Amino acid sequence: MKLLVKLPQHDNQMLDEVEIDVERFRMEQLNKKIKLQVGMEFKSIKEFKEAITEWNALNGWELKFVKNNKIGCIVICRNDCAFIALCSQIGEAHTYRIKTWYRDRT
Prior knowledge:
Mean pLDDT: 82
Radius of gyration: 14 Å
Order of helices and strands: EEEHEEEE
Number of strands: 7
């Protein structure tokens, strides 16, 4: 499935449209090298939280949930690196999508 995303250009006045592949997360594929990314979808917020917690543990990183409720959560690095992830519900659907993913681990 493709997701159409509008991105601001450098002058912040015009929008570029970019297509990204949307991938449905499957827990059985979780390993140290899996690439979690913007657009990845989860069947529940619980599945996302389990996946990101396990993925961080596999990679030896500690995380902190700064927002954590039924419709979404924000995760940051506990060790003050520049990692942030936001996953939230898609409209009224029972699907959740990573909407922000910035990973600069040190």
